[in-house]
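Researcher: Let's do a round of design. I'm pasting the structure tokens now; please hold your answer until I've finished.
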């Protein structure tokens, strides 16, 4: 290294300094070599795994009842329904970082704070089915007064009253 490496002055290249450049066909060949056997068929398999994982998550949350809103969405917006199933359910909800109760409490809190009451009610139902108590949901709603204000908390409290108790299997 030169004595002035700290000065930020670029050094002039010497004749024997070869800088390999990857351009055009060379770059394509390198990419194909790195990807190896990854084909469109294997990409479909990954997509199917994500879809299957998402369906498993939905069945777990709903107790096998499915999700009518998602299925109705699939009729007119299949690409959106696939995104929800594969990404939201398969990739995000399918993670192991939180237990079911904690994940549901967090989602109920987020939807309550956003004022997104239809989704809050769906997830409150899932939470009750997965063992969260009504008192715990009420605490989440009360906490919403701090994060989103009393009007959102009051709306969430009223919506929570509309959530039926889960049916025993």
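Researcher: That's everything. Go ahead.
Model: Designed sequence:
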């Amino acid at each position: 290294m030169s004595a002035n490496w700290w000065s930020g002055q670029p050094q002039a290249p010497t004749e024997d300094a070869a800088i390999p450049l990857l351009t055009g066909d060379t770059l394509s060949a390198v990419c194909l070599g790195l990807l190896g056997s990854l084909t469109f068929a294997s990409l479909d398999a990954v997509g199917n795994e994500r879809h299957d994982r998402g369906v498993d998550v939905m069945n777990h949350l709903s107790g096998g009842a499915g999700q009518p809103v998602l299925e109705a969405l699939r009729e007119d917006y299949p690409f959106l329904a696939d995104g929800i199933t594969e990404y939201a359910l398969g990739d995000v909800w399918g993670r192991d970082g939180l237990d079911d109760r904690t994940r549901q409490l967090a989602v109920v809190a987020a939807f309550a704070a956003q004022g997104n009451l239809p989704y809050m009610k769906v997830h409150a139902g899932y939470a009750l089915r997965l063992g969260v108590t009504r008192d715990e949901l009420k605490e989440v709603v009360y906490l919403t007064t701090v994060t989103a204000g009393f009007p959102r908390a009051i709306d969430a409290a009223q919506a929570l009253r509309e959530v039926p108790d889960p049916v025993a299997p």
